[in-house]
TrEMBL record:
Subcellular location(s) of the protein: Membrane
The family this protein is said to belong to: Belongs to the G-protein coupled receptor 3 family. GABA-B receptor subfamily.
TM region positions: 244-269, 281-300, 320-340, 361-384, 421-442, 462-481, 487-507
Organism: Dissostichus eleginoides (Patagonian toothfish)
Protein name as catalogued: Gamma-aminobutyric acid type B receptor subunit 1
GO cellular component: G protein-coupled receptor heterodimeric complex
Domain G-protein coupled receptors family 3 profile residue range list: 251-529
GO molecular function, a single term: G protein-coupled GABA receptor activity
InterPro entries found in the cross-reference section: ANF_lig-bd_rcpt, GPCR3_GABA-B, GPCR_3_C, GPCR_3_GABA_rcpt_B1, Peripla_BP_I
Keywords (A to Z) from UniProt: G-protein coupled receptor, Glycoprotein, Membrane, Receptor, Transducer, Transmembrane, Transmembrane helix
Keyword Transmembrane helix: yes
Compositional bias (Polar residues): 523-535
Topology within the bilayer: Multi-pass membrane protein
Keyword Electron transport in annotation: no
Amino acid sequence: TSQEFIAQLMSKLGGKNPEETGGFQEAPLAYDAVWALALALNKTVGPLKAKGHRLEDFNYNNRDITAEIYRAMNTSSFEGVSGHVVFDAQGSRMAWTLIEQLQGQPVSCWMFGAGWRWLSDHRATLGLIYVALLAGCPLISEPVFFHSDSVSVTVLRSGSIEALCIRWTDQKRSLFRRFPLLVLASIIPQDEGGSYKKIGYYDSTKGNLSWYGNDKWIGSCSGPGPPADQTVVIEEFRYLSQNIFVSVSVFAGLGILLGIVCLTFNIYNSNVRYIQNSQPYLNNMTAVGCMMALAAVFPLGLDGLHVSARHFPAVCQFRLWLLGLGFSLAYGSMFTKIWWVHTVFTKKEEKKDKRKHLEPWKLYATVGVLLAIDILLLMLWQIVDPLHITVEKFTREAPKGDLDVLIQPLLEHCSSEKMNTWLGVVYGYKGLLLLLGIFLAYETKSISTEKINDHRAVGMAIYNVAVLCMITAPVTMILSSQQDASFAFASLAIVFSVYITLVVLFVPKMRRLITRGEWQSDGQETIKTGSSTNNNDEEKSRQLERENKELQKIIQEKEERVSELRNQLTERQALRSRRRASSVTNQNHSSPALAIHQSDPRSLAPPPGYPVPISDLHPIPSSFGNSSSLYQPDSKISRNNCHASRLQLLYK
């Protein structure tokens, strides 16, 4: 028993205190370990004999004997010198665990970070050392001195803590250093009599902890308390740089003001013919869509620094809707213009008349269809798989000078369960529209029409928007873990594309109206004559010139045909004259009534025996007998001699 063990040990020690003897705490454990092995081997004799085995036959290849010994050890339970002895399935001793603490009279001092490393390296000469790293504690504001019989520590300060001086009583050893991090060091010199004190027991078999309450701890900022039993992990969120956010927001705000100016200009001058011919309602949609896209920059830069976790999903939805609808309005209105120009002016020649007729409601309906598709898609996304906050974790980082703390960087994202699927659908749909817009803009670059007089500017804007969008979409997905780069790339792409669109579409109109003075409306044109009327007259003159050239060409063809018919008629008249002369000679001029004046073709009659010729269904008018009077010497139409009936004949 334990009492017998203590009695025998005391007799061997000659009355000395066993606790002052080296190995006293480990000796009972070794004694019980030998007893546990002996009892386990003794327990295996019977079961092995029943199986036809003996302990003397043990070897490492005989698994039956090994399993029997393991079973006996696992079921061992007895009262030993060190207490109750029992083992778990892994072979570990299940007993009471003694919890001790080294306590003494420490010398505490404030010191800089690298100093405790030096102290740790010289613990053999200094004594026992404990160091607590302090984060966020206020620095001392005046010189402080700590003394003991063997060690004195002085903290020097001049404005801010500069150096640490540690001195011993013999005045032969000293440390004078400059260190970057303030720590709290507790030094227990060897001659101060530091000793282990029992502060509790833990019974692992029952999970029972017995605590004496006599523990002592080194002071910290928050007061006395136990040290951390593991590395402290501090979660730290990464937020968008406020300098980048403010800078981009300023550009976005200026862009919104520019959009308001363009929209106001377009509405105020909507009665000007030049503005009317550019489809001002579609331009208004473009301006509104651009302003919505710029407004999306602000929620795009909001994160946990500005918005609580409760309201962050609403911000995610708001930025998605604002950017999606803004793109549909701005790009959809430009796409509709270029699509109409391509559709109308690539029809066959026989459909020329339909080109001049433009139905605005079809254009507005096209924009409405594109907008409805986006609304339906966004509603489906929000209902089926709404956006929520997801937190991305990065590799833990160790701050400089602090060995007991790790920083866990975190980053908030707007995401959903099937985010990649939804992005694929949206990017695929928008990408097809962008590619189709580029194709239509290229196909219509050489077309000129009065109904949409700014389609070339629209094509240029489509080029810029398409290129920026196709570059930005994949890059932002790659840079999603870098909040500053991702926001800067996406927001600047929005800002630049909007600025280019507004400048290309509206600035030329402003410049034209300012430089040419084309400010009057259709109602004012009856009172004032401006450059708009002159432009219309010039266009009409060009149209008349084109028609004049076409008529000249037709008249020339008809004149050649008339000349050919006259030659044929002259040849036929000559042939008939010869035949008639021969007939008259044979008849001895018996019919004076049949005398023919060869000089007059209208008096010709068919010879005897020939049928009477059928009259021409389209006889040449008598006015063509003097057709040369229709033209001037320079082959231009003489309007004084050109009659409407003759023009109709030439068209026929």
